[in-house]
Amino acid sequence: MARAPNYGQERKERDRQKAAKKAEKLAAKVAAKERSKPADKTEAETAK
């Protein structure tokens, strides 16, 4: 016999996966921003 679906658990799992993917994208975006930032700071400091 097939088991009854657990919609609440399935929904939570989808939401968890979506949140993890969103956090990963945000972390990558922040890391890319940080990599480009130090180059800008050194140019600004040498101009002073």
Automatic annotation (TrEMBL):
This is DUF4169 domain-containing protein. The lineage of its organism: Bacteria, Pseudomonadati, Pseudomonadota, Alphaproteobacteria, Hyphomicrobiales. It comes from Mesorhizobium abyssinicae. It comes from the Bacteria. Residues 1-48 are annotated as: Disordered. Residues 9-48 have a biased composition (Basic and acidic residues).
